Amino acid sequence: MKENLSNLKKSARELYLLNRTQAVVSWDQETQMPDAANEERAEQLALLEGIMHQKLTSPEVGRLLSALGAEEGRPEGKGDFAVEDKAFVREMYRNYSRASKLPESLVTEMARQTGLAHTSWVNARKNADFSLFEGNLEKIIELNREKADKIGYKEHPYDALLDEYEPYMTASQVEGVFGPLGEKLSDLTARIAASKQVDTSFIEKKYPVELQDKFGRSVIDKMGFPMDRGRLDISAHPFTTNLGTNDVRITTRYDEELVLSGLFSNIHESGHALYELGIGENIQGNILAEGVSLGIHESQSRFWENVIGRSKPFWEVFYPEFQKLFGEQTKGVGLDDFHKAVNKVAPSFIRVEADEVTYSLHVILRFEIEKAMLSGDIKVSSLPDEWNRRMKDLLGIVPADDAEGVLQDVHWAAGLIGYFPTYALGNLYAAQFSNSMKSGIGDLDDVIRTGKFGKILGWLRENIHQYGMVYPADELCRRVTGENLNPDYFTDYLEKKYGEIYGLRGN
Amino acid sequence: MKENLSNLKKSARELYLLNRTQAVVSWDQETQMPDAANEERAEQLALLEGIMHQKLTSPEVGRLLSALGAEEGRPEGKGDFAVEDKAFVREMYRNYSRASKLPESLVTEMARQTGLAHTSWVNARKNADFSLFEGNLEKIIELNREKADKIGYKEHPYDALLDEYEPYMTASQVEGVFGPLGEKLSDLTARIAASKQVDTSFIEKKYPVELQDKFGRSVIDKMGFPMDRGRLDISAHPFTTNLGTNDVRITTRYDEELVLSGLFSNIHESGHALYELGIGENIQGNILAEGVSLGIHESQSRFWENVIGRSKPFWEVFYPEFQKLFGEQTKGVGLDDFHKAVNKVAPSFIRVEADEVTYSLHVILRFEIEKAMLSGDIKVSSLPDEWNRRMKDLLGIVPADDAEGVLQDVHWAAGLIGYFPTYALGNLYAAQFSNSMKSGIGDLDDVIRTGKFGKILGWLRENIHQYGMVYPADELCRRVTGENLNPDYFTDYLEKKYGEIYGLRGN
């Protein structure tokens, strides 16, 4: 048993190293590489992917897993191992069995179709004409259905896809959470819309990019982002990537006219990075050394971005420095007004620009549509109508065209079905975790007000980060909060915060 | 035959892509990565190396090569192929057979010993005490002798090692060239030392780094370095690396007090890069798509650095811009004096700081010592004495300690024996090529004086760059110049140039 485990760890170490190599190569592609090199770079990445697939699904890995007793229903095997070793076998089995079930022909066809779909999606969005993308999307849904069939599921094909991003969670669990959440958020959004609006004119002024960068770096430094174990660079779309135990990098983008966008990207991505940088030494350098699910990962980024970064005490600390850098732009704007502007809520069409209250409604809409497309309950051809109808239901607005409606996101063109829910799950986990944090470190606002975030980061490390993938998300949630995922923490948090900001009745 | 060739090309394509991936990962390590990530990054690189070795020495590659008729004495096989396909088989055979002959145990032991040696070398150099490095160097020489035995050679074990960096060249060929070269250079150096010295005080002033970068970028832009197919970054030691057909990057370093060092690094590395960027379309993306030997590679960098960059007409073009940027530092310094300062010659201890005349003497010394160590003619323990004696003979000076003597270079600690000669070969090829250039583009000085380098780059592309590894270095030399490597072109060039600068008799 011990020897099989140690041999399996050797194979896993190679997978780990190749995965980090891929991260280096991709990071370079997004931040440094001349555009002209793109085609060959894509080939480099595909080759690495192929080598990893081959190593993961090798007969040797299969033999070791089976010798360790890992099988359907008992993925952790039957070895009498420490908790992190059991988790290691479980995750290797999960990866191995998912990868082994997918025939190479399906993987290749998916790569081919998403290549074609990306081009047609870009074109369709540019022309605001869904019909130009429809055929390709149909193919992608078909292939995803086939993928789900190959992987297998108990209740709904969606489960097999969701499992890739939010392991061990099912569509019905998501539904159980999203149902009540959607109703409460729609209601809160409507009440806010009916109240007195906040002034945001001063944050729409021009803010020099160099000063934005200076301020942004000072904020993430105070959060605890270690520049000797990572970097901050510029890319077209902000992201976080793990290139090694001591090399986790974030990217951002600055726009002179969007000062908050760059800043909150920095904070958001730092939240992701701190998670990966906080992995415990006992699991560093192996396949458990990453976030356990995209939902939990997103909880870390959104906790820092929203719960911390958009809070009043945060700006009590940072607004003086902000005003010093941007005196002209903020002339005559008090802390209260600034904090309100940072938290403006309004129904809007584009998910990535949505505020903290309406954001999850965009996700719920996508989840429902994905699930119905996959089960065949709605046809791809009726997607624009379905989209617009649901926008009206959930947010009370209807997009003028497909570009600001059904065509806005890249995910489906990239073949990603089952990914969207993790964004909203992140909001829910973040609120539930920060509620539990109180008993550990006392009133969160008081801690933020000190301008020292070590206590907060320490709590996150101790309760969440160090475990990486050791505990599945649901188990982690129970360990940290004593209960299953419960959307009430999020809606309670929003009611309190926005009740104050918008002066809603009953607050 | 055709099918075997096409299958071999498929394998080679993977090797090509992995090689470029390795380049991405190494470039990042040198220019972007936080230091703390070094250990894990080294593991990533070792794993890639292992995967490449496995692919190169796979039974399938062996089978294809043998089916193509490639064997000792007929490395190009017996297929009736185009010249670049024959070259492709030849180089695959060469790589395959070198890699197959080395047992894994030897490769691992070499990696282990060079790891240890690097540490002891750093320590020995710091303490200027060769005895701290002696034992490790003995091991490395022993392993290199074993390596040479495994690979095989006709005349001297040195041949097997030299072949890695300067394929198909032998130690006796190098000797035939270095012998007369050494005598002539020692003589010229002595005559220069006895003449009136040039003033370099103004280039020892402080030159702001940002302006150095501005000027350096403007120079390599005019040389034809395409920023849309490459990059210029900062690293501890300047280097050029090929990350893909359209992604060749150079690095430099600037020091406020060493204005010429940064500038000539830029020019030197651009020379290397332009070679790799000029590979012909017919061999792009396969293993022939790089410089044919380190000597030829170095000829390109030194041609641009020395023949062009340290020429009078070059500074006729660029000195006005230089003066505009650095008015204070160059106040009262005329073009003639500046050009002389750029070409100051004096015997010195450190190879990498040596001038165009004395540089090759440093190389000749190292070549002789390496060869004698390998054959056992001199003992490692007597190295400091041997070194100092030869310095006296060749350059007329004796280092004060081992740090500025035998311990100055990293190469031996890194296991590189047989590498040094390529630096001097570069000088020789550069002079011989530029002599041939005349018949193609007319008087070189006249072309430089126009400030337009397209004609020069075009000639290099047409005659050298496009061929990559298609023609071995000696054949390439004959094709370009009509004769074998002949050191007289280099010494004639130096006599003429430095005769004028130093007002030597007979000039």
List the SSEs and their pairings.
The structure is a homodimer.
Chain A: H1 2-31, H2 38-56, H3 59-67, H4 83-101, H5 104-126, H6 131-151, H7 157-165, H8 171-193, H9 209-223, E1 230-234, E2 240-242, E3 248-252, H10 259-277, H11 294-308, H12 312-325, H13 335-342, H14 359-375, H15 383-395, H16 421-441, H17 444-449, H18 454-463, H19 473-481, H20 488-502
Parallel strand pairs in A: 1-3
Antiparallel strand pairs in A: 2-3
Helix pairs in contact in A: 1-2, 1-3, 1-4, 5-6, 6-7, 8-14, 8-20, 9-10, 10-11, 11-16, 12-13, 14-15, 14-16, 16-20
List keywords for this structure.
mainly alpha, 3 strands, homodimer, 507 residues, Neurolysin, domain 3, globular, three-stranded mixed β-sheet, 20 helices
